[in-house]
Task: inverse folding
């Protein structure tokens, strides 16, 4: 029974690649917008080019905010901030998390138990709360403190996942074979462990990206993120709060942007999970 | 009437045929072996015979188990057959038993089910007595301790004996054993094979023994079917098929087994 | 000539003793079979011989020197001479490495000079695989072919001894006989120590044999003699249990 290949029925396979495509498109739009803002935006972000709280129009695609500034420009810049924060937080989380996770996988029983328990306790903290603690500790609200805070908060999940994945790999015969062949432990980690845990980890990173973006928006909404003139979607949402009944688009637009990017990242993660294993079944 | 009559069975997964045009008959009391390497479809055939093919696989042809057509039958039609017509013993005793249930309780289940079917009482002490009876039949020592143990607390050989006891407790007409000794030590294997042989004879059951190990099969069955990639390659009495194989593939298998056998020299008395 | 000498070795996992006073020698050119059932300690002996664990007491000597796992230079020399093949062809090859990278590992790790690519192609030829296998991945090969790749990795550094841990147990009969034949061929240049529970395979490949029961050697000597005239009751029981082909 062990070698019965039950192949995925064709219908399911196309829906999976649909997931990936939609994810790529959504994320791609934001990436494009973010890069574009480096050289051009429809208007100056701080210029008051329209009337106050104008509804979306041909001149201002997303309308204007309470000071008459173009919302669409601010949302585009928000994409840049969101992607920057997401990438930064995931980078920090992966650096700290993967290192700690791999160390835990090698640790002796008692140390491993202690590390595992530590990871679990940190994970039990809501990401946002942890981030707020770090921001408070660094005593400044800036983009960098937000990235650092989120990176640290997310690293525990990455560490726990890495630990389990690394342990599984370390139990494989090809690791014993590498030791017999004379490879040192560092060499084994870089040549065998990391490449084999990467597919699952990368999917997780995509998910964490989405979480980081929402967390940053939450921090900004609470006023703990980067201060103005940085137009994080969270801050835009906070500003729109007071006028949400008279000028709903002020909240809808950044909300849509936030939702579309996070859903896009999640779909991307889903789609990646299926490509993750390049070893498609094939026999000679 | 034949106990198991498989006629032109074809099993497909996706577009691929895993078993092609398979025909096999087992009369009451007969002992039949199914030999094949991995990918031969031998386990699939056995699962199909009791309607236990996994999701995604389709069977065509005819499988008559105790006169009932299995292909296309519903769960309601199949359930009474399983246990009374045929019972299974699997390869891996560790996964075939529920790790969270004590042995006594596990063996009691098929007994209780069978008694209900026969219209007998499900009286606790009567069932317990039967559990002891079957554990004794499979020559397990220290029955009280074993009845109160979990699967991981007893050895592999003992677990397989328990699995056989559970199969026996169904009082099946046909016992299907899928590589029952492959995961066991050589000395334990010899004991289990001896046990199976004896029990099958004493209970008057038929036996379908599936294996890739030629000398093991030769020890327990009278007739043998050789499968290769889902197709029957040769069929006949064991002595004939092993003694003068006709098909190239059978010759190759017999020669390989004979080579290892020769290396062992004359059997020691 | 003695390659490895195991002297009064004992080993315990935590408080559970697994090997008691085990002594034997591996001689150059004489294939040795280590036969035992589960709990016999044969896998532990293998781990000790591979330098993956230290004996609790006793010593393992290689070329006269005691095995010292902390001596990097010594272990490098040791591993150049002693390589291994494992049981499960599906877990002994890194699925994300090409065949070339897999076979190159000992050459790289042991810093062996010379043309690595040529050595790899030669090793592949020695195990009966084509040179174009180098750019492929393990999942493209069958179980028997993967074992050949594992063998190529074991012999590429031209070791003196290859330790085979149930190297054919997970293979089909038809593949098994072919790999055993391959091992016989390779043993013209390399000594093989086969750890197995399968007496038939050991008998086909090894000139000398050691029977292990519960961490002790109960019988040892030339295979043909022991098979014809087993002395110890356990050996007799083992031999009597092996299913034979009908006459």
Result:
């Amino acid at each position: 029974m062990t070698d019965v290949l039950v192949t995925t029925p064709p219908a399911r396979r196309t829906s999976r690649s649909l997931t990936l495509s939609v994810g790529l498109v959504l994320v791609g739009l934001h990436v494009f917008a973010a890069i574009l803002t480096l050289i051009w935006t429809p208007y100056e972000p701080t210029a008051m080019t329209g009337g106050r709280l104008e509804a979306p129009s041909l001149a201002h695609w997303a309308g204007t905010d309470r000071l008459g500034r173009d919302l669409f420009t601010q949302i585009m810049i928000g994409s840049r901030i969101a992607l920057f924060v997401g990438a930064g937080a995931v980078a920090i989380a992966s650096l700290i998390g993967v290192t700690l996770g791999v160390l835990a996988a090698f640790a002796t029983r008692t140390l491993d138990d202690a590390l595992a328990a530590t990871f679990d306790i940190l994970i039990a903290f809501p990401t946002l709360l942890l981030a707020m603690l770090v921001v408070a500790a660094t005593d400044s609200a800036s983009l960098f403190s937000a990235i650092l805070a989120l990176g640290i908060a997310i690293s525990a999940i990455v560490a726990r996942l890495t630990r389990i994945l690394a342990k599984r790999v370390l139990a494989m015969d090809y690791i014993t074979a590498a030791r017999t062949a004379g490879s040192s432990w560092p060499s084994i980690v870089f040549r065998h462990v990391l490449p084999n845990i990467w597919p699952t980890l990368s999917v997780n990173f995509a998910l964490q990206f989405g979480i980081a973006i929402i967390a940053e928006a939450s921090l900004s909404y609470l006023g703990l993120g980067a201060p103005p003139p940085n137009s994080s979607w969270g801050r835009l949402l906070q500003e729109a709060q007071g006028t949400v009944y008279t000028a709903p688009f002020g909240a809808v637009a950044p909300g849509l942007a936030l939702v579309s990017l996070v859903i896009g990242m999640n779909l991307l993660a889903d789609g990646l999970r299926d490509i993750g294993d390049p070893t498609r079944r094939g026999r000679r | 009437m034949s106990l198991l009559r498989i006629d032109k069975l074809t099993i497909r997964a996706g577009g691929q045929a895993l078993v092609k045009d398979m025909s096999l008959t087992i009369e009451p009391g007969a002992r039949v072996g199914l030999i094949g390497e991995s990918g031969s479809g031998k386990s699939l055939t056995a699962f199909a015979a009791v309607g236990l093919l996994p999701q995604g696989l389709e069977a065509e042809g005819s499988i008559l188990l105790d006169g009932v057509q299995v292909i296309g039958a519903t769960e309601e039609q199949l359930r009474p057959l399983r246990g009374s017509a045929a019972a299974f013993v699997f390869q891996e005793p560790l996964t075939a038993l529920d790790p969270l249930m004590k042995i006594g309780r596990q063996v009691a289940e098929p007994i209780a089910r069978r008694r209900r079917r026969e219209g007998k009482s499900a009286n606790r002490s009567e069932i317990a007595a039967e559990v002891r009876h079957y554990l004794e039949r499979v020559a397990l020592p220290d029955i009280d301790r074993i009845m109160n143990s979990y699967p991981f607390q007893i050895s592999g050989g003992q677990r397989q004996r328990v699995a056989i006891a559970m199969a026996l407790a169904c009082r099946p007409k046909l016992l299907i054993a899928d590589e029952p000794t492959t995961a066991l030590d050589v000395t334990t294997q010899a004991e289990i094979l001896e046990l199976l042989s004896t029990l099958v004879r004493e209970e008057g059951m038929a036996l379908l023994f599936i294996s890739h190990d030629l000398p093991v099969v030769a020890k327990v069955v009278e007739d043998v079917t050789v499968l290769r990639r889902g197709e029957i390659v040769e069929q006949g009495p064991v002595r004939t098929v092993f003694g003068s194989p006709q098909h190239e593939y059978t010759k190759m298998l017999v020669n390989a087994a004979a080579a290892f056998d020769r290396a062992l020299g004359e059997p020691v008395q | 000539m003695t390659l490895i000498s195991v002297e009064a070795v004992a080993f315990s996992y935590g408080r559970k003793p697994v090997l008691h006073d085990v002594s034997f020698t591996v001689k150059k050119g004489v294939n040795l079979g280590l036969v035992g059932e589960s709990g016999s300690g044969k896998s532990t002996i293998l781990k000790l011989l591979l330098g993956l664990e230290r004996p609790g007491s006793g010593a393992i000597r290689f070329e006269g020197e005691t095995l010292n796992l902390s001596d990097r230079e010594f272990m490098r020399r040791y591993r150049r001479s002693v390589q291994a093949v494992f049981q499960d062809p599906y877990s002994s090859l890194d699925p994300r490495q090409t065949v070339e990278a897999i076979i190159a590992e000992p050459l790289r790790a042991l810093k062996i000079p010379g043309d690595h690519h040529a050595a790899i192609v030669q090793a592949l030829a020695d195990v009966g695989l084509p040179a174009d296998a180098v750019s492929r991945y393990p999942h493209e090969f069958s179980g028997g072919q993967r074992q050949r790749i594992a063998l190529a990795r074991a012999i590429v550094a031209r070791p003196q001894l290859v330790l085979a841990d149930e190297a054919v147990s997970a293979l089909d009969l038809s593949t098994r006989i072919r790999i055993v034949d391959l091992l016989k061929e390779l043993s013209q240049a390399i000594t093989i120590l086969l750890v197995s529970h399968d007496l038939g395979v050991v008998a086909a490949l090894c000139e000398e044999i050691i029977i292990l029961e519960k961490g002790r050697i109960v019988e040892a000597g030339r295979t043909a003699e022991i098979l014809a005239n087993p002395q110890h009751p356990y050996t007799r029981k083992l031999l009597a249990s092996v299913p034979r082909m009908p006459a």
